Automatic annotation (TrEMBL):
GO cellular component, one term: plasma membrane
Enzyme class, first EC level, given as a word: transferase
Gene3D superfamilies: 1.10.287.130, 3.40.50.2300, Histidine kinase-like ATPase, C-terminal domain, PAS domain
The enzyme's E.C. designation: 2.7.13.3
Domain Histidine kinase: 369-576
Keyword list, A-Z: Coiled coil, Kinase, Phosphoprotein, Transferase
Compartments it resides in: Cell inner membrane
SUPFAM superfamilies: ATPase domain of HSP90 chaperone/DNA topoisomerase II/histidine kinase, CheY-like, Homodimeric domain of signal transducing histidine kinase
Molecular-function GO term, any one: phosphorelay sensor kinase activity
Pfam family, one: Response_reg
Protein's name in the database: histidine kinase
Length: 714
C-alpha cells in the first residue's frame, strides 16, 4: 500500500518540482531583464540630458563676443543663458591652460575661485571632446556637477566652457521613470559617486558606492545584474549599466525580499506537495502494519488501484476487510482528486507561461524611441491657408501638400512613438494618395542641412503613397548613413516605365554579408564599441521595410564590404499624375519693411516668409539665434519676429542680445510663441518685446506685427 501511494503521488510531485523550477527560472530571468532594461533607459535619458547641456554650451561657444575677444560681452551672454536654465548654477570660461577667465556666479572681474574637479578640466583639454565631470559640493555646501565643452574661437584660441549644474535636473529625470514600488534608482558619475537618487537624495548625493556594488561591477563588467547592499544596509537585487558615452552609470535596485517573494510562494507550494506525499506514505504505512494480512487478500484490488483501473470490491463481513475496502475507496477518490489537481496545475502552468510570453512580447514591442521636434505644426498650416486666401488661388499644390504633411505629422506625433508596436501587432496603416515623390525627397533633403548630401531627382515622380511615411523612410535611411560614418551621402531618384527607384548611397563603414542578411530585422545594427557613439536601437530599417511593403514596394541593401559604404534601394510602383488646376497670380500687399523672421521650424519659416513677401515686405529668414545675430550684423531690419523655442538660445535671450548689439538703434521686436498665458505675455514685454503673438500666427497677426508701432500696441 505504501508503494501504491508513492506511485500515485510521485508523478505529481515530480511534475510540480519541474514546473516550479521552470517558472521560477523564467520569472527570475524576466525580472532581471526588466531591471537591466530600466537601468539602460535611465542611462539613455541621462545621456540625452547631458547631450542637451553640451548642445547649449556649444551654441554659446559660437557667440560673436567670444570670437571678437569681448569677454565682458560674452560674460553678459553667458550669464543670461545661465539664468534661463533653472538648474544651472552658472557658466565658467577657462583658457587653454585651465585658467578661469570668468564665472557668471561672480561679478565680472572678481577674483577667481579654485577650479572644482580639475581632473575633468584636464581631460577635456587633452581629449578635445565634451566631458561630464564629477559631483562635488561647493564652498556653500551645494552639490553640483560640471559639464565641460572645448570651444575654438575664430582666432584659433582654445577655451573650455563649463556649465555648473545642480543634481536636481537628474533627480527629476529619475522621478519621470516608471519603476516598481520600493525600487531605488541611482545615477552615478564617472567615480560612481551619487549624482541623483530616488531615495534620500539630500543625504546621499556625492557619496561613493557601497563596497558590494563595487565588487559586483568588478565581477560582472560593463553592465549586469546581481545582489548588492545599499549604504543603508538593505540587500537589493541590483541591475546596472556603465555604457553611457559620458562614463556615467545608472543603477536600479529592488529589495531582495520582493525579488524572491514569488519564488518563496512557489517553494511553499512545492513543500506542501512534499508534505502531502509524506503524510500519505505515513498513513499508508500505519494502515499496512495493522492490516498486513487483510491487504494480502486485497492484492488484486490494490493492483487495480495502482494501474488506474476502476476499483471493484466484493462485500465482506470482516470488519478489517471492510475497513481496508473503505481505505481503498478513499485512495481511489484521492487519486481522482490528485489527478484533477494535477490537471489544474498543468492548466495554471500553461496559463502562466502564456501570460509571461504575452508580457515579454509587450515589453519587446514597446520601444523607447522618443521623437523630438514635437512642436505644434498648426502655424505653417494657418499661414499657408492665409497665403491661399490672399492670393485668391483656386488651388496651390505646394502649400496644399505642405499643409497635408503638417496635419499628418500633428495627428501622428504620438502614434509614431508606437510604430514598432503597431508593426508587431499588425495594426500599422498608411494613408495613401497620389503624391509627387520628387517633392517629398527634395523636402526631406532640404530638412537635413547638417549632412553633406547631393540630390539627383527629376521634376516629378508620381506614386500612390503616404507623404509623411515616405519622408520617414528617407529620413531613416539618411540618419542611418550619418550614424555609421558617411560624410558624403548621395540621394538618387529615377523612374522607368512602371516603377520609381530611390537610392541612398553612403561612404560609411559598410556591411558584412552576415549583417546584410539581417539588416532589416528589428534590433539589428553594425557592431559598435562599448561607447555606442552611434546610438539607436536598431529599429529604423525595420520600420523602413514595413512602410515600403505597405506601399507595395521593396527595399534592398547592398555593400561591397566593411569600409566600402552601403547602398539602400527603395522601389515603388508608379501611378498616373493627377490633374492640376492652373495657378492664379497673387496680390502683393503694402508694407515695404525689412523683416527678420527667426523660426527653427523650416516649414513655418518658409510659409511665414512667403506670406510676408506677398504683403510687400523684404524678408530674411534665420533658424537659430546665432544665425539671427549674424543677419542683424549684416543688415538692421525694421521688424524682427522671433520664435521663443529656438535650439541654441530662447527668444528672450536672443531679444536681449539683439538690443545690446544694436546699441539704441530702433527695432520692433515681435515674440512668436505657442504659450499665450498672462504670465507669458508679461514675460515677453519684460524682455523688451514690442508685441506678443500666439501661434499659429494668422494673416491678421502678421499685419499687426508690421503695422505702425502705435497701431500694433492698441
Amino acid at each position: 500500500m505504501i508503494m501504491l501511494t508513492a506511485i500515485g503521488l510521485l508523478p505529481l510531485a515530480l511534475l510540480g518540482a519541474w514546473s516550479i523550477h521552470t517558472v521560477s527560472d523564467y520569472q527570475q530571468r524576466d525580472q532581471e531583464r526588466l531591471m537591466l532594461d530600466l537601468a539602460r533607459a535611465v542611462a539613455s535619458a541621462a545621456d540625452a540630458e547631458l547631450d542637451g547641456v553640451v548642445s547649449t554650451l556649444t551654441s554659446l561657444g559660437h557667440a560673436p563676443a567670444l570670437d571678437d575677444g569681448d569677454l565682458r560681452g560674452f560674460y553678459d551672454a553667458a550669464r543670461a543663458l545661465a539664468k534661463a536654465q533653472p538648474d544651472w548654477l552658472g557658466v565658467i570660461l577657462t583658457d587653454h591652460a585651465g585658467k578661469i577667465l570668468l564665472r557668471t556666479m561672480d561679478e565680472y572681474g572678481a577674483p577667481s575661485a579654485p577650479v572644482a574637479d580639475p581632473v575633468s578640466l584636464q581631460e577635456v583639454l587633452t581629449t578635445r571632446r565634451p566631458i561630464a565631470g564629477r559631483i562635488a559640493r561647493g564652498a556653500g555646501g551645494r552639490a553640483a556637477f560640471p559639464v565641460r565643452v572645448p570651444v575654438t574661437a575664430a582666432d584659433g584660441k582654445l577655451y573650455t566652457l563649463t556649465a555648473v549644474i545642480r543634481p536636481d535636473r537628474m533627480l527629476r529625470l529619475i522621478e519621470r521613470q516608471q519603476v516598481p514600488g520600493g525600487s531605488v534608482t541611482t545615477i552615478r558619475d564617472t567615480a560612481l559617486a551619487v549624482v541623483a537618487r530616488s531615495q534620500n537624495q539630500d543625504s546621499t548625493v556625492g557619496m561613493p558606492p557601497s563596497p558590494s556594488l563595487v565588487e559586483l561591477i568588478r565581477a560582472t563588467g560593463a553592465e549586469g545584474v546581481g545582489l548588492a547592499r545599499t549604504r543603508e544596509g538593505q540587500d537589493m537585487a541590483t541591475a546596472y549599466t556603465t555604457l553611457s558615452h559620458y562614463g556615467w552609470a545608472a543603477v536600479v535596485g529592488r529589495p531582495a525580499e520582493q525579488h524572491h517573494a514569488v519564488f518563496q510562494g512557489l517553494g511553499m507550494y512545492g513543500a506542501g506537495i512534499l508534505v502531502s506525499l509524506l503524510l500519505c506514505i505515513g498513513l499508508a504505512s500505519l494502515l499496512s502494519r495493522r492490516l498486513v494480512v487483510a491487504i494480502k487478500a486485497l492484492q488484486q484490488g490494490a493492483a487495480a488501484l495502482g494501474t488506474g483501473a476502476p476499483l471493484v470490491l466484493a462485500p465482506s463481513s470482516i470488519r478489517e476487510i471492510a475497513d481496508i475496502g473503505k481505505g481503498l475507496e478513499q485512495a481511489d477518490r484521492q487519486r481522482a482528486a490528485q489527478e484533477r489537481e494535477r490537471k489544474l496545475l498543468l492548466d495554471s502552468l500553461n496559463q502562466a507561461l502564456d501570460e509571461a510570453n504575452q508580457a515579454g512580447r509587450a515589453k519587446d514591442e514597446f520601444l523607447a524611441v522618443l521623437g523630438h521636434e514635437l512642436r505644434n505644426p498648426l502655424s505653417p498650416i494657418v499661414t499657408s491657408l492665409d497665403l491661399l486666401d490672399r492670393r485668391d488661388e483656386q488651388a496651390s499644390r505646394k502649400e496644399r501638400t505642405m499643409m497635408r504633411r503638417q496635419v499628418n505629422h500633428l495627428r501622428r506625433l504620438v502614434d509614431d512613438l508606437l510604430d514598432v508596436s503597431r508593426i508587431t501587432s499588425g495594426k500599422f496603416r498608411i494613408d495613401a494618395q497620389a503624391i509627387n515623390l520628387a517633392e517629398v525627397v527634395r523636402h526631406a533633403v532640404a530638412a537635413a542641412p547638417d549632412q553633406s548630401l547631393t540630390l539627383s531627382a527629376p521634376e516629378a515622380v508620381w506614386v500612390d503613397g503616404d507623404d509623411s511615411r515616405l519622408t520617414q523612410v528617407l529620413n531613416n535611411l539618411l540618419s542611418n548613413a550619418a550614424r555609421f560614418g558617411s560624410n558624403a551621402t548621395e540621394v538618387r531618384l529615377s523612374k522607368d516605365a512602371t516603377h520609381a527607384r530611390l537610392e541612398v548611397i553612403d561612404n560609411g563603414i559598410g556591411m558584412s554579408e552576415e549583417l546584410l542578411a539581417r539588416v532589416f530585422e528589428p534590433f539589428q545594427q553594425a557592431p559598435q564599441s562599448l561607447a555606442r557613439r552611434t546610438g539607436g536601437l536598431g529599429l529604423g530599417l525595420a520600420i523602413v521595410r514595413k512602410i515600403v511593403e505597405l506601399h507595395g514596394g521593396q527595399v534592398t541593401a547592398a555593400s561591397a564590404g566593411a569600409g566600402q559604404g552601403s547602398r539602400f534601394t527603395v522601389t515603388l510602383p508608379l501611378v498616373t499624375p493627377p490633374a492640376v488646376a492652373p495657378s492664379l497670380p497673387g496680390q502683393a500687399g503694402a508694407g515695404g519693411l525689412r523683416v527678420l523672421l527667426v523660426d527653427d521650424n523650416i516649414d513655418a519659416a518658409a510659409t511665414g516668409s512667403a506670406l510676408l513677401e506677398l504683403m510687400g515686405h523684404e524678408v530674411r529668414v534665420a533658424h537659430t539665434g546665432a544665425a539671427a545675430l549674424e543677419a542683424l550684423r549684416q543688415q538692421t531690419p525694421d521688424v524682427a519676429i522671433l520664435d521663443i523655442g529656438l535650439p541654441d538660445m530662447d527668444g528672450y535671450t536672443l531679444a536681449g542680445a539683439m538690443r545690446r548689439q544694436l546699441a539704441g538703434t530702433p527695432l520692433r521686436l515681435v515674440a512668436l510663441t505657442g504659450y499665450g498665458q498672462k504670465e507669458d505675455v508679461e514675460r515677453a514685454y519684460a524682455a523688451d518685446f514690442n508685441l506678443h503673438l500666439t501661434k499659429p500666427a494668422t494673416l491678421a497677426d502678421l499685419q499687426l506685427a508690421t503695422a505702425p508701432l502705435e497701431q500694433a500696441a492698441i
